[in-house]
Design a protein that fits this description.
The chain is built from no helices and ten strands. The protein is mostly beta strands. The C terminus is likely disordered.
């Protein structure tokens, strides 16, 4: 199972595996659409490039048990988790990010 929430530019990711594969690694990526990049040098110098499904933040960690949490600082539209070991990819999942509403402070 995979779930993710974004609040104040921090993405909290929760995932679970049953059973947890031994010696596995989790690659967690926050993906965004509508990313704009102005290229200052090189073969695309002076161009403005537009990207969808661009990885804007990622981390890799050991799978230590049947469930885990991770936090990444990013703004995106979805989260992708890929579980792998030395033999290759064991599984992958994606979910749409949900924004946690900000409650105004009481005055």
């Amino acid at each position: 199972a995979l779930s993710a929430e974004e609040h104040d530019g921090v993405v909290d990711v929760h995932y679970s595996l049953d059973p947890a594969p031994p010696n596995a690694r989790a690659l967690i990526a926050v993906v965004a659409d509508g990313v704009v990049h102005r290229v200052p040098r090189g073969e695309n110098a002076g161009r403005t490039l537009h990207h969808d499904r661009a990885v804007v933040a990622s981390l890799e960690r050991a799978v230590d048990g049947p469930s885990a949490e991770a936090a990444l600082t990013a703004n995106g539209t979805r989260v992708v988790v890929v579980i792998s070991d030395a033999t290759g990819v064991l599984g992958a999942a994606q979910t749409t990010l949900t924004a946690t509403p900000v409650t105004p402070a009481a005055r």
